[in-house]
């Protein structure tokens, strides 16, 4: 919808200027009337823009919105006024349109959680339910503060996950290219020197020749196998059972498995703690965590735990039956349940994993680097031996 710059008056005769989004001047006058104002004059300052190409909101934008809204509400600014202020400063983006819609809905009598539910790609189920609980309890300021802290943690976690995945992939890809160039392009140039020799070639030379011939003659088999693996992964991940098996296997991978496990447990503790602090009941909180935990195997565990809790068992009792949760976590949850400080102990678990996950990632990267260096050194030595051993044998034969 277009945006209008207006001049309006109130019952005291005071003139007020501002901007408001409306389909036309008639709707603008109706909106001003709802605010206790009457329209004097208006001018369209910005035509409606299409946001169909980019209906995505960056995590940083959502964090800034949450922090800003929390600051305004803490300062005593009414929610509607605060949303309009944020929208004015949002710049030309899809998120500006979303915030404007939130303000319009609230002005029309909707709650902010109901309005947010209209934008599930912007506000996920956890965000909406926490806001809804905050509205119901009158603690919107507190839950916004918790959400801001949660989004900051989520941003830090995603940076750590990218660090743990992108760097090794780039390094392994570079090493793969180096090996490919050495075996497929460099070594075959020396092959012409050995073809006319009437002598038995050393073991390293025969091995590299076999590898070079295989890569040159059966490259399509290798690429096809990689393609089949990728396709199998994609197809398998479309089905729940496939996702569970794949994610369970990921947590058992050497080196990387423990990191993936710790990230999943960290998410579980953060999500559950945030929802319980907001006042959401335990079974509903588990249902929400199940959809957001980001690991199908852990999600299946959370579903089983929820059913056990509904059957009358404590959280710690349900956790004990699943090796995905370390004994330390189970013990802290058990103490929290018995002392009536479950939310506090979940927060302690979250803080523990906030330190543990980055340390685990750094240790993993620290293990990968020397392994790759040793691998590169081994390949270079193998190719060097494959080239120089026959040359050494040739020189001995000439001298003999």
Give a nutshell description of this structure.
The protein is mostly helical and 400 residues long. Among the domains are: 3-46; 59-151, Type II secretion system (T2SS), domain F (Receptor-associated Protein), CATH 1.20.81; 257-360, Receptor-associated Protein, CATH 1.20.81.
Can you tag this structure with a few keywords?
single chain; 400 residues; mainly alpha; Receptor-associated Protein; 16 helices; 3 strands; elongated
Written description of the protein model:
With 400 residues, the chain is mainly α. Among the domains are: 3-46; 59-151, Type II secretion system (T2SS), domain F (Receptor-associated Protein, Up-down Bundle), CATH 1.20.81; 257-360, Type II secretion system (T2SS), domain F (Receptor-associated Protein, Up-down Bundle), CATH 1.20.81. 73% of the residues lie in helices and 6% in strands. The protein has helices at 25-34, 59-74, 79-88, 94-107, 112-116, 125-137, 140-195, 203-217, 219-236, 240-250, 257-277, 282-292, 296-310, 315-320, 327-339, 342-399; strands spanning 3-9, 15-21, 38-46. Strand 1 and strand 2 (15-21) form a beta hairpin. Helix 7 (140-195) runs parallel beside helix 16. It is elongated and about 115 Å long. Mean pLDDT is 84; it is low at 48-54.
Mean pLDDT: 84
Order of helices and strands: EEHEHHHHHHHHHHHHHHH
Number of strands: 3
> Fraction of residues in helices?
over 70%
Query: Helix count, per DSSP?
Result: 16
CATH topology of the domain at 257-360: Receptor-associated Protein
What would the principal axes of the Cα set say about the shape?
elongated
Instruction: State the end-to-end CA separation.
Output: 93 Å
> What's the CATH first level of the domain at 257-360?
Mainly Alpha
CATH architectural group of the domain at 257-360: Up-down Bundle
């Amino acid at each position: 919808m277009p945006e209008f710059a207006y001049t309006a008056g109130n019952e005291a005769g005071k003139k007020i200027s501002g901007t408001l989004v409306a389909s036309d001047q008639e709707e603008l006058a109706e909106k001003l009337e709802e605010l206790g104002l009457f329209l004097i004059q208006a001018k369209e300052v910005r035509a409606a823009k299409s946001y169909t190409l980019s209906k995505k909101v960056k995590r940083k934008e959502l964090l800034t919105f949450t922090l800003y809204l929390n600051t305004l509400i803490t300062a005593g600014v009414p929610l509607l006024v605060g949303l309009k202020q944020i929208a004015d400063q949002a710049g030309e983006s899809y998120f500006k349109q979303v915030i404007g819609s939130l303000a319009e809905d609230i002005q029309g009598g909707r709650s902010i959680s109901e309005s947010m539910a209209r934008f599930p790609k912007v506000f996920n189920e956890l965000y909406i339910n926490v806001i809804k609980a905050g509205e119901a309890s009158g603690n919107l300021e507190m839950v916004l503060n918790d959400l801001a802290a949660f989004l900051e943690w989520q941003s830090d976690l995603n940076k750590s996950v990218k660090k743990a995945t992108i760097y090794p992939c780039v390094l392994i890809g570079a090493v793969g290219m180096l090996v490919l160039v050495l075996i497929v392009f460099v070594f075959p140039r020396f092959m012409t020197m050995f073809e006319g020799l009437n002598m038995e070639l050393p073991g390293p030379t025969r091995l590299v020749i076999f590898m070079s011939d295989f890569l040159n003659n059966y490259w399509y088999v290798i690429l096809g196998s990689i393609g089949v693996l990728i396709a199998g992964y994609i197809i398998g991940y479309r089905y729940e059972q496939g996702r569970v098996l794949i994610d369970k296997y990921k947590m058992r991978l050497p080196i990387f498995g423990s990191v993936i496990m710790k990230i999943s447990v960290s998410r579980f503790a953060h999500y559950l703690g945030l929802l319980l602090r907001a006042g959401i009941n335990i079974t509903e909180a588990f249902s929400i965590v199940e959809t957001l935990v980001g690991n199908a195997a852990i999600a299946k565990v959370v579903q089983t735990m929820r059913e056990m809790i509904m059957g009358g068992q404590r959280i710690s009792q349900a956790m004990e039956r699943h090796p995905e949760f370390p004994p330390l976590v189970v013990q802290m949850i058990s103490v929290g349940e018995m002392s009536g400080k479950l939310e506090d102990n979940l927060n302690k678990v979250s803080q523990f994993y906030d330190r543990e996950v980055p340390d685990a990632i750094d240790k993993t990267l620290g293990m990968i680097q020397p392994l790759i260096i040793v691998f590169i050194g081994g390949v270079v030595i193998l190719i060097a031996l494959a080239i120089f051993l026959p040359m050494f044998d040739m020189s001995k034969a000439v001298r003999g």
